[in-house]
């Protein structure tokens, strides 16, 4: 059975946790909980780089292909 967010101990020795609760008036309440490991954060960084670097190359290529304005 998967562990729930109410577990007291971390499931990984290097696990980091964060919890945020945002209340706006009496009607709106937002709660967020995040669990991450250093390896997971590195994986996200590699994936973001794999997406953003080619996007940058494509954007720079489009700027170079623009005809000069008079």
UniProtKB/TrEMBL annotation:
<protein>
    <submittedName>
        <fullName>Uncharacterized protein</fullName>
    </submittedName>
</protein>
<keyword id="KW-0812">Transmembrane</keyword>
<keyword id="KW-1133">Transmembrane helix</keyword>
<feature type="transmembrane region" description="Helical">
    <location>
        <begin position="39"/>
        <end position="59"/>
    </location>
</feature>
<keyword id="KW-0472">Membrane</keyword>
């Amino acid at each position: 059975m998967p562990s729930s967010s109410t577990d007291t101990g971390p499931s990984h020795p290097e696990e980091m946790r964060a919890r945020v609760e945002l209340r706006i008036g009496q009607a709106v309440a937002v709660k967020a909980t995040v669990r991450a490991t250093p390896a997971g954060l590195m994986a996200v960084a590699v994936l973001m780089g794999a997406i953003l670097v080619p996007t940058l190359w494509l954007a720079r290529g489009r700027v170079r292909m623009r005809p000069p304005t008079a």
